Amino acid sequence: MNCLLVAATAFEIAPFIQHYRNSDVPFYVDIQVDVAITGVGLMATTYNLQRQIQVKKPDLIIQAGIAGCFDLSVALGTVFAVKKDTVADLGVTEKSTFHSLFDMGFVKPNHPPYKGGWLVNPGLHLLKKNSLKKVAGVSVNQITTSKQAINHYTAKYKPVVESMEGAALHYVSLMENIPFMQLRGVSNYVGERNKKKWNIKDSVANLNNELIRLLNSL
Ligand SMILES: O=C(O)c1cccc(C(=O)CC[C@H]2O[C@@H](n3cnc4c(=O)[nH]cnc43)[C@H](O)[C@@H]2O)c1
Protein backbone atom coordinates (compact mmCIF):
# COMPACT_ATOMS: atom_id res chain seq x y z
CA MET A 1 0.00 0.00 0.00
CA ASN A 2 1.24 3.47 -0.92
CA CYS A 3 0.40 5.99 1.77
CA LEU A 4 0.95 9.71 1.37
CA LEU A 5 1.36 11.50 4.70
CA VAL A 6 0.93 15.27 4.51
CA ALA A 7 1.24 18.08 7.04
CA ALA A 8 1.18 21.83 6.70
CA THR A 9 4.49 22.18 8.54
CA ALA A 10 7.30 19.73 9.31
CA PHE A 11 7.15 20.21 13.07
CA GLU A 12 3.64 18.73 13.23
CA ILE A 13 4.88 15.30 12.10
CA ALA A 14 8.49 15.49 13.30
CA PRO A 15 8.01 12.80 16.03
CA PHE A 16 6.57 10.40 13.46
CA ILE A 17 9.51 10.96 11.08
CA GLN A 18 11.91 10.41 13.97
CA HIS A 19 10.12 7.22 15.00
CA TYR A 20 10.06 5.97 11.41
CA ARG A 21 13.79 6.68 10.92
CA ASN A 22 14.84 5.10 14.22
CA SER A 23 12.82 1.95 13.77
CA ASP A 24 15.01 -1.12 13.35
CA VAL A 25 12.13 -3.35 12.41
CA PRO A 26 10.11 -2.67 9.27
CA PHE A 27 6.94 -2.05 11.25
CA TYR A 28 4.97 -1.05 8.17
CA VAL A 29 5.67 -4.28 6.33
CA ASP A 30 3.31 -3.72 3.45
CA ILE A 31 3.06 0.04 3.62
CA GLN A 32 5.26 2.51 1.87
CA VAL A 33 4.94 6.00 3.34
CA ASP A 34 5.74 9.10 1.30
CA VAL A 35 5.82 12.38 3.17
CA ALA A 36 4.98 15.83 1.82
CA ILE A 37 4.94 19.18 3.61
CA THR A 38 2.20 21.10 1.86
CA GLY A 39 2.51 24.53 3.53
CA VAL A 40 -0.06 26.41 5.58
CA GLY A 41 -3.42 27.17 4.02
CA LEU A 42 -5.94 25.76 1.59
CA MET A 43 -4.31 27.02 -1.60
CA ALA A 44 -0.81 25.68 -0.89
CA THR A 45 -2.26 22.38 0.32
CA THR A 46 -4.42 21.92 -2.77
CA TYR A 47 -1.53 22.67 -5.12
CA ASN A 48 1.00 20.46 -3.37
CA LEU A 49 -1.43 17.56 -2.89
CA GLN A 50 -2.34 17.64 -6.56
CA ARG A 51 1.33 17.69 -7.57
CA GLN A 52 2.12 14.70 -5.35
CA ILE A 53 -0.82 12.74 -6.70
CA GLN A 54 0.25 13.38 -10.27
CA VAL A 55 3.71 11.94 -9.55
CA LYS A 56 2.46 8.89 -7.64
CA LYS A 57 -1.18 8.16 -6.97
CA PRO A 58 -1.40 6.92 -3.36
CA ASP A 59 -3.81 4.31 -2.01
CA LEU A 60 -4.39 6.46 1.07
CA ILE A 61 -3.69 10.07 2.03
CA ILE A 62 -3.31 10.99 5.70
CA GLN A 63 -3.21 14.63 6.75
CA ALA A 64 -1.94 15.24 10.27
CA GLY A 65 -1.91 18.61 11.98
CA ILE A 66 -2.75 20.71 14.99
CA ALA A 67 -6.03 22.57 15.23
CA GLY A 68 -8.12 24.98 17.20
CA CYS A 69 -11.14 23.62 19.08
CA PHE A 70 -14.58 25.20 19.49
CA ASP A 71 -15.56 22.99 22.43
CA LEU A 72 -14.10 24.29 25.67
CA SER A 73 -14.88 20.99 27.43
CA VAL A 74 -12.37 19.18 25.20
CA ALA A 75 -8.92 18.84 26.78
CA LEU A 76 -6.03 20.40 24.87
CA GLY A 77 -4.01 17.59 23.31
CA THR A 78 -7.06 15.54 22.35
CA VAL A 79 -6.78 13.97 18.90
CA PHE A 80 -9.76 13.72 16.55
CA ALA A 81 -10.46 12.22 13.14
CA VAL A 82 -12.39 14.65 10.97
CA LYS A 83 -15.40 13.01 9.33
CA LYS A 84 -16.53 16.10 7.39
CA ASP A 85 -15.05 19.49 6.59
CA THR A 86 -16.00 22.62 4.70
CA VAL A 87 -14.51 26.06 4.00
CA ALA A 88 -16.29 28.13 6.61
CA ASP A 89 -15.33 31.60 5.38
CA LEU A 90 -15.89 31.19 1.63
CA GLY A 91 -18.64 33.61 0.68
CA VAL A 92 -19.71 37.13 1.52
CA THR A 93 -20.55 39.05 4.68
CA GLU A 94 -23.32 41.54 4.01
CA LYS A 95 -24.93 43.68 6.71
CA SER A 96 -23.10 41.61 9.33
CA THR A 97 -24.55 38.33 8.02
CA PHE A 98 -22.35 35.72 6.37
CA HIS A 99 -23.61 33.95 3.25
CA SER A 100 -21.70 30.89 1.99
CA LEU A 101 -21.24 29.93 -1.67
CA PHE A 102 -24.22 27.59 -1.17
CA ASP A 103 -26.36 30.34 0.37
CA MET A 104 -25.48 32.57 -2.58
CA GLY A 105 -26.41 29.86 -5.09
CA PHE A 106 -22.96 29.70 -6.68
CA VAL A 107 -22.61 26.01 -5.83
CA LYS A 108 -25.40 23.51 -5.18
CA PRO A 109 -25.00 21.92 -1.72
CA ASN A 110 -25.00 18.43 -3.28
CA HIS A 111 -22.84 19.23 -6.27
CA PRO A 112 -19.94 16.71 -6.17
CA PRO A 113 -17.85 16.42 -4.13
CA TYR A 114 -20.17 18.18 -1.66
CA LYS A 115 -22.93 16.51 0.32
CA GLY A 116 -25.22 19.03 1.95
CA GLY A 117 -22.47 21.60 1.72
CA TRP A 118 -19.94 19.30 3.44
CA LEU A 119 -16.91 17.40 2.17
CA VAL A 120 -17.68 14.09 3.84
CA ASN A 121 -15.12 11.34 4.36
CA PRO A 122 -16.77 8.11 3.16
CA GLY A 123 -13.89 5.96 4.46
CA LEU A 124 -15.48 5.25 7.82
CA HIS A 125 -14.18 1.68 7.79
CA LEU A 126 -10.67 3.11 8.14
CA LEU A 127 -11.72 5.26 11.07
CA LYS A 128 -13.36 2.33 12.85
CA LYS A 129 -9.99 0.66 13.30
CA ASN A 130 -8.95 3.19 15.88
CA SER A 131 -10.57 4.74 18.88
CA LEU A 132 -10.48 8.33 17.71
CA LYS A 133 -13.66 10.33 17.99
CA LYS A 134 -14.99 11.48 14.63
CA VAL A 135 -15.97 15.12 14.48
CA ALA A 136 -16.95 17.90 12.10
CA GLY A 137 -14.23 20.35 11.15
CA VAL A 138 -14.13 23.69 9.40
CA SER A 139 -11.29 25.17 7.40
CA VAL A 140 -10.61 28.88 7.28
CA ASN A 141 -8.39 31.26 5.37
CA GLN A 142 -8.48 33.70 8.25
CA ILE A 143 -7.89 32.22 11.72
CA THR A 144 -10.95 32.87 13.85
CA THR A 145 -10.36 35.37 16.62
CA SER A 146 -13.63 37.20 17.38
CA LYS A 147 -16.44 36.00 19.62
CA GLN A 148 -18.87 36.98 16.88
CA ALA A 149 -17.20 34.69 14.32
CA ILE A 150 -16.99 31.82 16.83
CA ASN A 151 -20.72 32.13 17.56
CA HIS A 152 -21.51 32.36 13.88
CA TYR A 153 -19.49 29.24 12.92
CA THR A 154 -20.86 27.32 15.90
CA ALA A 155 -24.45 28.10 14.91
CA LYS A 156 -23.93 27.46 11.20
CA TYR A 157 -21.61 24.43 11.16
CA LYS A 158 -21.47 23.01 14.72
CA PRO A 159 -17.78 22.25 14.21
CA VAL A 160 -15.46 20.81 16.83
CA VAL A 161 -12.14 21.71 15.19
CA GLU A 162 -10.79 24.47 12.97
CA SER A 163 -7.79 24.18 10.67
CA MET A 164 -6.43 25.95 7.63
CA GLU A 165 -5.97 22.88 5.39
CA GLY A 166 -8.56 20.17 6.11
CA ALA A 167 -11.07 21.01 3.41
CA ALA A 168 -8.34 20.96 0.75
CA LEU A 169 -7.50 17.36 1.67
CA HIS A 170 -11.17 16.34 1.56
CA TYR A 171 -11.86 18.15 -1.72
CA VAL A 172 -8.82 16.81 -3.62
CA SER A 173 -9.18 13.25 -2.25
CA LEU A 174 -12.89 13.07 -3.05
CA MET A 175 -12.37 14.44 -6.55
CA GLU A 176 -9.51 11.98 -7.16
CA ASN A 177 -11.36 9.09 -5.50
CA ILE A 178 -8.52 8.40 -3.07
CA PRO A 179 -9.27 7.20 0.50
CA PHE A 180 -8.14 9.73 3.09
CA MET A 181 -7.95 10.53 6.79
CA GLN A 182 -7.61 13.86 8.53
CA LEU A 183 -6.15 13.67 12.05
CA ARG A 184 -6.13 16.80 14.23
CA GLY A 185 -4.54 17.32 17.62
CA VAL A 186 -6.11 20.17 19.56
CA SER A 187 -3.45 22.79 20.33
CA ASN A 188 -5.72 25.66 21.36
CA TYR A 189 -9.26 26.85 21.77
CA VAL A 190 -10.47 28.85 18.79
CA GLY A 191 -10.08 32.57 19.42
CA GLU A 192 -7.38 32.17 22.10
CA ARG A 193 -4.64 34.63 21.17
CA ASN A 194 -2.40 34.02 24.19
CA LYS A 195 0.10 31.39 22.99
CA LYS A 196 0.98 30.60 26.63
CA LYS A 197 -2.47 29.03 26.86
CA TRP A 198 -1.85 26.76 23.88
CA ASN A 199 -0.56 23.22 24.28
CA ILE A 200 1.37 22.53 21.10
CA LYS A 201 3.65 20.01 22.85
CA ASP A 202 0.89 17.58 23.86
CA SER A 203 -1.13 18.08 20.69
CA VAL A 204 1.86 17.17 18.51
CA ALA A 205 2.95 14.27 20.75
CA ASN A 206 -0.54 12.73 20.93
CA LEU A 207 -1.17 13.34 17.23
CA ASN A 208 2.00 11.50 16.27
CA ASN A 209 1.27 8.60 18.63
CA GLU A 210 -2.13 8.21 16.99
CA LEU A 211 -0.52 8.40 13.57
CA ILE A 212 1.88 5.57 14.43
CA ARG A 213 -1.00 3.55 15.91
CA LEU A 214 -3.11 4.10 12.80
CA LEU A 215 -0.36 3.05 10.41
CA ASN A 216 0.32 -0.06 12.49
CA SER A 217 -3.36 -0.95 12.35
CA LEU A 218 -3.75 -0.73 8.58
O1 LIG B 1 -0.47 33.52 15.71
C1 LIG B 1 -1.63 33.16 15.78
O2 LIG B 1 -2.53 33.87 16.20
C2 LIG B 1 -1.96 31.78 15.36
C3 LIG B 1 -3.29 31.32 15.49
C4 LIG B 1 -3.62 30.04 15.10
C5 LIG B 1 -2.65 29.20 14.58
C6 LIG B 1 -1.34 29.67 14.45
C7 LIG B 1 -0.26 28.81 13.95
O3 LIG B 1 0.86 29.17 13.87
C8 LIG B 1 -0.57 27.44 13.55
C9 LIG B 1 -1.19 27.38 12.18
C10 LIG B 1 -1.39 25.94 11.79
O4 LIG B 1 -2.05 25.22 12.82
C11 LIG B 1 -3.39 24.95 12.52
N1 LIG B 1 -4.17 25.66 13.56
C12 LIG B 1 -3.89 25.57 14.87
N2 LIG B 1 -4.79 26.24 15.58
C13 LIG B 1 -5.66 26.79 14.71
C14 LIG B 1 -6.81 27.62 14.88
O5 LIG B 1 -7.23 27.97 15.99
N3 LIG B 1 -7.45 28.01 13.75
C15 LIG B 1 -7.03 27.62 12.52
N4 LIG B 1 -5.95 26.85 12.34
C16 LIG B 1 -5.27 26.42 13.41
C17 LIG B 1 -3.62 25.42 11.08
O6 LIG B 1 -4.10 24.36 10.32
C18 LIG B 1 -2.24 25.87 10.58
O7 LIG B 1 -1.66 24.91 9.74
C19 LIG B 1 -1.00 30.95 14.83
From TrEMBL:
Q: Which pathway does it take part in?
A: Quinol/quinone metabolism; menaquinone biosynthesis
In Gene Ontology terms, what is one molecular function of this protein?
hydrolase activity, acting on glycosyl bonds
Q: Does the keyword Hydrolase apply?
A: yes
Q: Which reaction does it catalyse?
A: futalosine + H2O = dehypoxanthine futalosine + hypoxanthine
Domain spans labelled Nucleoside phosphorylase = 33-210
Determine the domain of life of the protein's source. Bacteria
Which family is this protein grouped under?
A: Belongs to the PNP/UDP phosphorylase family. Futalosine hydrolase subfamily.
Output this protein's name: Futalosine hydrolase
Species this chain originates from: Terrimonas ginsenosidimutans
